[in-house]
Every structure is written in C-alpha cells, then in structure tokens.
Amino acid sequence: MIRFENVTKRYADGTTAVDELSFEVADGELVTLVGPSGCGKTTTMKMVNRLIEPSSGRIFLDNEDISTVDPVQLRRRIGYVIQQVGLFPHKTVLDNTATVPHLLGTGRAKARARAAELLDLVGLDPKVYGERYPEQLSGGQRQRVGVARALAADPPVLLMDEPFGAVDPVVRERLQSEFLRLQQEVRKTVLFVTHDIEEAVRLGDRIAVYGQGRIEQFDTPSAVLGAPATDYVADFVGADRGLKRLSVTPIEESDLEQPPVVHLDDTLPRALDAPWAVVLDSADELHGWISGAHAAERTGSVREHARRMEAWLPLGASLKQAFATMLQHDAGWIAVLDKDEHRFLGVLTPAKLHEALRRSTAADAQAIARAEVQLESVDAVVGSL
Ligand SMILES: Nc1ncnc2c1ncn2[C@@H]1O[C@H](COP(=O)(O)OP(=O)(O)OP(=O)(O)O)[C@@H](O)[C@H]1O
C-alpha cells in the first residue's frame, strides 16, 4: 500500500510541482496519474522511490515512512519502468532481464531461468529473443523487456512513467492489453503515469486526474468519465466522453436480445418470427445465421443455407469493442458468447448498445447522488453535536 500525506515538493527555483498531495493506493491496485505536461506526475512518482525528496509531508509504503528507509533498500521493493527503457546495450535480452536478481544474489543460472519465464510472461519467446541485443528489437519489444526487467526482482510495487509513450498507437494498444493480462496474474501495486486519458481509463482501477500540482479527481474510470468533479476535469476528459465511456462499460447478459435459434441439422424453417435466426451446431456453439426471407423460398437443411458469423464477442468485452466489431463486419448485430467463448448467450444490437451506455451513465449519477446524501447526513450529525 502507498499513502501520500500532505506531500509538497517545491524545487530550488521556487516552482511548486506538487502541492499538499494526499491519496492512497491499495495493495494490488493500479492507479493511473493523468494530466497535462508539467502538472507534477513524474515528481509524484519519483518521490516514491526517493529519486526526489519531498519538501514537506510524508509518504508511506506498507505503513512505513519511506524517509526512514535506506533508498537502496527501498528501491529493491519498487520496480521502475520509464519511457526510455535504458536497457544495457551490450547485454542480451535475457541478461538484461536477469541483471537485478543476479545483483541481489540469485545464482546466474536461476536468475536466467526466471528471466526466461518473465520474458514469456510479457509475450517475448525467450528462445527467439533471449539472445538478441536491445538494438535488434522493435520499440514495443524493448518496452516489454523493460517491464520484464522491472518484474524480475518480484517487487510488490511498480512505478511506470509513460512506459508505452514512445511506441505507435497500434503497438501501444497491444502493450496495454498485455500489461492488463499480466497485472491480473501478478497483482502488483502500480502507479502508472500517462498524459493520455484513454490509456488512464483503460488501465486504471482508479484514476488521479492532476491539475497544477494537485489532484482534481481521484475515482474509478467510469465515475471520472460519467461525473467529472470539476469543469477542469470535464475539459480534460474531453468532448468525446461518450466514446471513452464505451471503452469502460462491459457487455452484460441483460443487454442481450434473444433472436430465434435453429440448429445446423434442422430442416429449413418455413417462417421465422424475425428477419433472421442464429444458427448453432450440435454442441450449441455459434455457427452463423440464416435470413428468414432466404429460408422461406428454399428447402433442405439449415446447414446448406447457413452463413458463417464472424462478428461475435465474449460477455464482458467492452461496448467499444462491440461497436468496433459491428463496424468492422458491417453487421447490424453481433453474437455474444460466454466468457469461455463457447456457449451462445444472445445478440447485441445497436439499440441495446445505446441502452447499455445510458444505463452506465445513470448508474454513476445515482452513485454520486447517494454519496452526496451520505455526506449531508454526516454533516447533520456533526452539526448537531
Ligand atoms: N529539477 C527541477 N527544478 C525545477 N523545476 C522542476 C524540476 N523538475 C521539474 N520541475 C517543474 O515541476 C513541475 C512538474 O514537473 P513534472 O516533471 O513532475 O511534471 P509532469 O506532470 O511529469 O510533466 P510531463 O508530463 O511533461 O513529464 C514542472 O513545472 C517542471 O518544470
């Protein structure tokens, strides 16, 4: 757990980079710090591993005041990933990754074996990439080595300063997905700096939106998008808030419609209650669809006339993915399968997608109204004392 208590950093020239900052990051939580250039994100981060010392206030790691901990000892508990990865150019990828555990006293063979596991975990086959040198990697691959190296000493805390900032948007999105998958597995306590609100929303369990040296809002992605606390946050989050909200709202079972269903070995139905039906195989897995008008004019089995359906997603995928899938396949609806991607659950239509989006906005508005009521009642109790 990381806790900031009234932390201020004033540089020698009088710049106040961070002003009376207080917040807490729970164990295993990923908090993104987002805000415009120069608002104090990096300063915040570097105070955690004592690359910068606060002017006042205190920072705790697992309830221990870090100003009382030797910085070298402290940094062993904290992995650090930065944009310019800083790999050793003359060492192979495997040796780069194994460096820290080796320095900490793990035998070379064991450190290399662990490094190979970590490279695998970040999506780099150690057999293919282990013996390469950093200059023989793409920018995205170098970033992955940076993440593997930060994880090598198995620190409970990770500080990541724009780690995916230097790669193109497509690679960046892939790295983000891989990092999320990795975080599910390793559950580190992570502070992640970015100036990109999309990235902050996608990765953060909670987001700290920075104004100048201060946090303007510290909340879940969907609350930041759905109910910005101040005009500043609303501006920063931007006009395309609806689109961003799509990326944090998952498809739920109640969003789905149930169209007619036929099986591959059925005879072609004479009439359908809908313009089309979903076609399942004998194991009830999705095969495709048939058009009612097409079926009405023909004979034979469903198998002979069914069309394949590629536009599908598992339950829990985001509404943004659903929207993108509809566009990509030029589809008026998409099929939704269970999380294991086997059982067919129903279909999502554009109308239902819109309803889901509204449901998500309304839920946040209610949560905020409830929070205000609670605050008022606390005030009332305090006032009556
Ligand atoms: N060593 C320093 N001396 C004086 N001022 C500094 C120093 N380092 C940072 N600053 C100032 O402190 C403020 C916060 O800087 P910081 O690097 O924390 O911002 P940031 O939000 O990380 O910005 P960016 O997104 O551009 O990296 C800025 O105004 C910066 O110019």
**Spatial order of the strands forming the largest sheet:** 6-7-8-3-9-10
Largest sheet: 6 strands, mixed
* Quaternary: single chain
Task: Tell me the name of the CATH class of the largest domain.
Answer: Alpha Beta
CATH superfamily of the largest domain: P-loop containing nucleotide triphosphate hydrolases
The CATH architecture assignment of the largest domain turns out to be 3-Layer(aba) Sandwich
The helical percent reads: 40-55%
Outline of the structure:
The protein is an alpha/beta fold and 385 residues long.
Structure explained in plain terms:
The chain has 385 residues and is of the alpha/beta class. The chain folds into two domains: 2-248, Rossmann fold (3-Layer(aba) Sandwich), CATH 3.40.50; 253-354, CBS-domain, CATH 3.10.580.10. It is 41% helix and 22% strand. The protein has helices spanning 41-48, 71-76, 93-103, 108-121, 126-129, 139-152, 169-186, 197-203, 221-226, 231-237, 241-248, 292-296, 302-305, 319-328, 350-384; strands at residues 2-10, 16-25, 30-34, 56-61, 64-65, 78-82, 157-161, 189-194, 206-210, 215-219, 261-263, 276-280, 286-291, 307-308, 312-314, 334-337, 344-348. A six-stranded mixed beta sheet has the order 6-7-8-3-9-10, sandwiched between helices. β4 and β5 form a beta hairpin. α3 (93-103) crosses α4, α3 runs parallel beside α6 (139-152) and α4 (108-121) crosses α6. The longest helix has 35 residues, at 350-384. The two termini are 34 Å apart. The structure holds adenosine-5'-triphosphate (ATP). The site of adenosine-5'-triphosphate has 13 residues, from α1. Residues 2-237 form the ABC transporter domain. Belongs to the ABC transporter superfamily. Residues 306-363 form the CBS domain.
